[in-house]
Structure formats: structure tokens, C-alpha cells
Amino acid sequence: QLQASGGGLVQAGGSLRLSCAASGRIFSNYVMGWFRQAPGKEREFVGSIRWSGGWTSYADSVKGRFTISRDNVKNTVYLQMNSLKPEDTAVYYCAADAYVVTLSSAYWGQGTLVTVSS
Fold this sequence. Notes:
Blueprint: E1 2-5, E2 8-11, E3 16-22, E4 30-37, E5 44-50, E6 56-58, E7 66-71, E8 76-81, E9 90-98, E10 107-108, E11 112-117
């Protein structure tokens, strides 16, 4: 089970940190990811992190602004979002799956709303 939190209202240029806490054991072959869905748009990939090794991957639209990290003790993944833009406004979801996260992944959090005002 995944529990996302940390969303809110922020001005453009500001920062937010989202958290995704996982209950239960996270296996070493798991990947944790973040997706987002803006109003009227399809859900899209934001970034991911491999639980073992910590390798990360990002969508081009967030590279250099967003950073994903993990806390192995707390079983939590973070999405640090800096230099936020109004187009980053969306509901952000965390997901988990073995080897790769996709829109068809097995485990999803409930979503947390991020609103960036101009």
C-alpha cells in the first residue's frame, strides 16, 4: 500500500516535497515512481527510482528541477520539486512495481494535488 502526501498551493518558482510511504517490504527489484495528471490531460510519467541502487530516471519536462530520493529505513520515496511552473499543476501519484513503473503498474497511491499559481 502506498500513501502519498505533501501536495499544496505554491507560487511559481517555489518548491514542494512530496512523500510516498510504502507499507510492507519493498523488494530490491522494485522501482518506485511518480506520475502526474493535469486537468483534462492523460496521466504522465514524472520520474522513478530503483529501490536497490537508487538509479533515477526523469521526464524531460522536469529534468534539472525535480529530484527523486528514497529512505530505505522509512520505506519512503520523495519527490523534491523546485522551480515550479504553473504547468506542473496536477494530481501527483506514486506507483510501484517490479523492474519498471508504467501506467499499468500494480501499486498506486491515492494522489496528492499540487497547484502552482502564476
